[in-house]
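As described in the Methods, two query proteins were run sequentially through the folding procedure within a single session, without resetting any intermediate state between them. The first query and its resulting structure tokens are shown here.
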Amino acid sequence: MYLHGGSGNHGCEAIINSTCHMLDGIPKLLVTNSEEEDRAYSLAPLCDILQERKIAEHFFAHVWYYVWRAVFHDPESFMRYRFRQVLGQNRAPLYLSTGGDLYCYELSRKEAITANAAFCRAGARTILWGCSLEPELLREPEVIEDMKRYALITPRESITEQALRAAGVTDNVRLYPDPAFALEPEETELPRGFVRGGTIGINVSPMVVERESVPGITMANYRKLIDYILQTSDNCVALIPHVVWHHTDDRRALRELYRGHEANDRVFLFQDMSCRKLKYVISQCRIFIGARTHATIAAYSSCVPTLVIGYSVKSRGIARDLFGSEEHYVLPVQALEKPEELIQAYDWIAGREDQVRADLERMMPAYRARAAEAGEEVRRIWDGCRAGSVQ
């Protein structure tokens, strides 16, 4: 498993955790950007963990490979350095690219394409696991060529699946829900005063704030919503982080929202914990409003009525597959113009709370089971690799 950024993004952790359980009995090695993070949370008992080589931290190696790449037009040289411990004589038969939205961002897209080419050139099979791709991206010949290299692509929502098929990538595509839908929660202690089934969970991320069209409008909407909940109901408010990487830490925005409510015994600011414990906290909420995709997946899969503050194909596609439409279930951050719009979207969900919960309870057992079934696709390819061919 490769192109994993580390468990400080608990969505990344949730994908690996769920995948490891799906592939029980198959030897698994996680090549990670942050071994320290992965050992700190839930992954160490589930798979072997190997720190990838970081070329930027080794001056002479960086210079050598930069010159080599420039002279010989060999973009894969950086990847051969980065993954040298799992290439050559140590090559594995099968590699899973586990960063589901890597192709949505220019730098990580280049890394994903180059790594896939390097592994395939070495004679391995590759899988693009639980992915989302913006349809416009599949107009690029380089991306289409790359998609066709994979032995298997498992888009996690139908917008991506349809875009792949429209681009002529068909034979290796199988639609499955995100692996984290199958994640099992782990019970953790809740703060005194937290009301199970009477608390509104809230998540916000720097990433959505960066994509707002009106400066400051996202946080203004969240502040208005918190005040509205506290003034018009007896619900509690739980501020829940899901990514704690230094460069994109949810806790910074949540601490800003918490300011002024420190003495209010109905407002709780949660600290960092593993993906399974975070899922338990989210599962105890009455309604969830979230920006991070895997925070909302934790809510959906726990049958908690959920409003997504989204910006990409991920949130739209998942909501469309669950409810038939993303309208009312996803509020695009780019569309926010007035401070009361989040309240209006929340009122729509809250006014239909029982029906939305009933819809999730009806569909989620099969949906979660379908997510787990993706592991059988991997087993099929794994067995084929070991036999010397893909069945």
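Immediately afterward, the second query was submitted; its sequence and tokens are:
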Amino acid sequence: MKTSEELKELVREKYSDIALQKKEANAASCCGATDVSGEVYNIMTDDYSALEGYNPDADLGLGCGLPTQFAQIQKGDTVIDLGSGAGNDCFIARHETGETGKVIGIDFSEPMINKARINAEKLGFNNVEFRYGDIEKMPVSDGIADVIVSNCVLNLVPNKPNVISEIFRVLKPGGHFSISDIVIVGELPESLKKDAEMYAGCVAGAIQKDEYLGHIKEAGFENITIQKEKTILIPDDILEKYLSKDGIDSFKNADLGIFSITVYAERPGSPGDKTREKKKVKLSELDTSCEPASGCC
């Protein structure tokens, strides 16, 4: 069993390599970490191209949702993106927060940081910056963010409660987050859980859905809501690398699900002098099949 530091180093090395891969290879694999599927092109990613602020050079096809679409970002907000990659969600957020706001991307892969900075310079964005750092120890001060977003990153971190506590620390009172991530219901086969590629591929590092939502509640967040949920299906030609034919059949027939969820939650307290016309999240207004965070809302 690898230690937390060994797992983090594995992810750092893998995503430094992924920074140099084409989007097509990343989208047709599990977060760019596994072999490419010939059966399915888009395994986890959602289509960003219709969102304002989208820049194709920053889209590496590594996400599992569209957290910035649900993040209720307002003009002048300070937004932090955890695991910012080549800057995709940061540039979408920058469109929402405008020139009067600020966007900070945090990533611990130097090639990703370098790629993101080049993209920001090409776009002439002076209010978007990228900081090298570990999201378990964010290189930002207490209470500076109005909104935090993240796309398919927390499942890569061994100690998820640490990250959630850090999110609480850096959010302003009354601030909120919208995070897309991979969770599971049921038990993954041991061969998937133990495999390093599947860990870096956002699957083996995922935890139980109820446990994930429980960590958010335990950190002190309120109004926890699942804004979007979709099932992730791993193609046979990828599963064949980890499971026998019988194992694949058992995996498919088991009471098991791998899901991408986009979760919203608020840090308690007043946002202070700034007036925020924060629209309450209503599940009936969402364009997807959603459900409240079980036991947490």
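The chain is about 30% helix and 20% strand. We note this only descriptively and draw no conclusion about the first query from it.
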